[in-house]
Every structure is written in C-alpha cells, then in structure tokens.
Amino acid sequence: MKKLVMTALVAVAAMVGVGHVANADALDDIKKSGKIRIAIDLGVPPYGMTDDKMQPTGLDVDAARLLAKDWGLTFEHVPTTGASRIPALQTGKADLVISSLSFTAERAKVIDFSQGYAVLRTVIAAPKSVNVKSLADLDGKTVGTVRGTTHDTQLTKEAPKGMKLVRYEDDATEAQAFLSGQVDIFSTAEMIVPQIDKKNPARQVELKFVLDNFKLCVGVKKGEERLVAEVNKWIQANLKNGRLNELNKKYFGSDLPDLIVKQ
C-alpha cells in the first residue's frame, strides 16, 4: 500500500514538473539568463553593418542595444543573413530578430511579429539631372526594378501606361545596369541608393521620391505571447520618448513616418 502511495506521489510530482516546464516561456528564460540574443544581419547598411574597427553598428544594432539596456540585460549579437533570420528563431539560436525584417502574411505563418519600430522605404532613384517627382512623371520613361519585389508589384499596378518596366533578377544586377547606363531611372530600397552613389559618384544618383513605407518589426518565435507583449511595450515607450525617432534621424536624416509613430 505504501509503495502504491509513493508511486502515486511521484507521478503527481512529475505531472506538476511537466506543467511547470510547459508554462515556462522565452521571457522567463531570457530574464533568468541575464542576456538577450538578437539576430542581426550586418550586410544591410545602414540597418546592420560594421564600423572602421569591424564592430557591429547600424540602426538595428543600436535598437537592439537600447532594448537590452532598457531591460537590464547583456546584449549578445547573433550573426545572421536574410535567409537565416527566421530559422535562427525557430532553432533557438536567437531570442529575437531585429534585422530589417518587414511583416508579411507568409512570414506571420511561421513566426510572430512586434509592432513596427522602423521603416524600409521603397523609392525611385535617378541621376540628379533627371526630373521626376511622382509616378505620373514616369510616363514615357524606362524604369528598372528587381523582379518579384514589392516595388516591382507596385509599379506594375500603379505606374502610367506609357512607362516601360525592365526587370532585373537582383539588386546587384540592377545596380550594374544603372552604373553602365543601361537604365537611368530605377526602383529600389532607400538604403541601396547611397551604396550605388559611392560606387560611381559620376552618375550623381539621388532619391527622387518615395514609393511606399513598410514596417520593420521585431521577429519572435511563434507562440511567445508574453515576449511579444514586452517588446511592444518597449517599442511604444521608445516611440513616445523619441529614442527610436532619433535613431531614424541618425541613419536616414528624417523623422519616422506616421505609419510607425501612430500605430
């Protein structure tokens, strides 16, 4: 009889232990560890890059460090690429992804997203001598774009009928087409324009107008609701105190748009 009672008690204790483990979550684990592992791609300036001392820097790096500091944690950078950002969460290599990650319905099927903390702008760029200020001004013009991107989709739907759209397979091919004079006007992400200008300043490329703004969000492993809620609280607090806006002005020279400020 005593043996049966002891067996039952052990079973109950085991069930309680399992329940405790099941109720534990990523936020508890992060607090307990005293550090937060954040995946950031350092190949996407000015969001992620290295400085002249080969140390991580950029808007995403500054945001990650600010979050760690506000939470009283040690920041640990987890190197990543565009393709490995989401797997880093799914495999437990990173607690968060802050790496120019825009929300899409497809991505939301496999990870969770915070509110937006920054933006990625898609733009029209061209040499200084080319006078275009809106989509209407593209009528009769040839415009380069990268196949399958959000700016390709937008131009296909919204551009004037007289505009000719030339599609390239990737950003590097499009940039080379512009630098070699195959195309003068092109759509791209805002952050790429300064890189192209640096490669060939004689072309005098500049941003002409913004096509659209996309929310950049913090990526969180699926189902970690408390962690998402804490990240959202942090974002709202740092939008209110202006720190996230300061980061945007530091790296882009402009204020955050209403898309982020008024969410």
Provide an overview of this structure.
The structure is a single chain. This protein has 263 residues and is α/β, with parallel strands linked by helices. The protein folds into 2 domains: 153 residues, 3-Layer(aba) Sandwich (D-Maltodextrin-Binding Protein, domain 2), CATH 3.40.190; 93 residues, D-Maltodextrin-Binding Protein, domain 2, CATH 3.40.190. Helix content is 40%, strand content 25%. It has 10 helices and 10 strands. The strands form 2 sheets. The protein has an 8-stranded mixed beta sheet with strand order 4-1-5-10-6-9-7-8. A two-stranded antiparallel sheet has the order 2-3. Strand 7, helix 5 and strand 8 form a beta-alpha-beta unit. The chain is elongated, with a radius of gyration of 23 Å. The relative contact order is 0.16. The N terminus is likely disordered.
Distance between the termini: 63 Å
Specify the CATH architecture of the largest domain: 3-Layer(aba) Sandwich
Order of helices and strands: HHEEEHEHEEEHEHEHEHHH
Total domains: 2
Oligomer: single chain
Mean pLDDT value: 89
Please give the share of residues in helix: 25-40%
Number of strands: 10
